[in-house]
């Protein structure tokens, strides 16, 4: 649930970028010396801090309210959280770059969120999926974010495993590609708003 809440915070958190474009604020920002990529990173960092708060609150609720046993590996948790939060914020930034309205953005974020929720192994183990569906779950970023958070909070398996780093690498690629495409779309400024 921690990975899901952080992922949804990133996916849904960039809705303000769509509203700023609609009001013409992004055009005004382009006239300042601030680069749009830096502006996007600033928005991501706000959500990153909120993600840290989410992890702390949800972990405390789990431990104090439900008696959850955590086997923390702090370095694994920090790396997984950092890369995962940035990747999902980058996806939100990408969605905001080509959404013409808040409704379109929210619809796109909902579709992505629901697909990943049910196909990433949060609620159902992926090895129980039909054979044709299992490869789909292996390309979704939430699969690797969930695995990283589990490694850092539940299993305490450590940062030294190659499986952990392969998942973090895939998650990082998702983030870099999504942010890069989002920056390119914002630079072109071709999205017309209503």
TrEMBL record:
It comes from the Bacteria. GO terms for cellular component: ATP-binding cassette (ABC) transporter complex. It is a multi-pass membrane protein. It is found in: Cell membrane; Membrane. Residues 116-189 form the ABC transmembrane type-2 domain. Pfam families: ABC2_membrane_3. GO terms for molecular function: ABC-type transporter activity. Keywords: Cell membrane, Membrane, Transmembrane, Transmembrane helix, Transport. The chain crosses the membrane at residues 37-68, 74-95, 107-124, 164-186. PANTHER family: DOXORUBICIN RESISTANCE ABC TRANSPORTER PERMEASE PROTEIN DRRC-RELATED (PTHR43027), TRANSPORT PERMEASE PROTEIN (PTHR43027:SF2). This is Transport permease protein.
């Amino acid at each position: 649930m921690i990975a899901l809440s952080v992922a949804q915070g990133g996916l849904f958190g960039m809705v303000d970028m769509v509203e700023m474009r609609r009001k013409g604020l992004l055009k005004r920002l382009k006239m300042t010396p601030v680069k749009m990529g830096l502006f996007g990173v600033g928005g991501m960092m706000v959500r990153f801090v909120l993600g840290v708060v989410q992890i702390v609150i949800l972990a405390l609720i789990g431990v104090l309210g439900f008696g959850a046993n955590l086997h923390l590996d702090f370095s694994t948790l920090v790396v997984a959280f950092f890369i995962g939060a940035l990747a999902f914020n980058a996806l939100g930034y990408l969605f905001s770059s080509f959404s013409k309205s808040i409704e379109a953005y929210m619809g796109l974020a909902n579709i992505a969120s629901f697909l990943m929720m049910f196909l990433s192994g949060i609620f159902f183990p992926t090895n129980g999926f039909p054979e044709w569906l299992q490869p789909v779950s292996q390309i979704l970023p939430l699969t690797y974010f969930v695995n990283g958070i589990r490694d850092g909070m539940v299993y305490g398996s450590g940062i030294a495993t190659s499986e952990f780093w392969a998942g973090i690498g895939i998650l990082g690629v998702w983030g870099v590609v999504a942010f890069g495409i989002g920056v390119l779309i914002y630079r072109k400024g071709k999205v017309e708003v209503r």
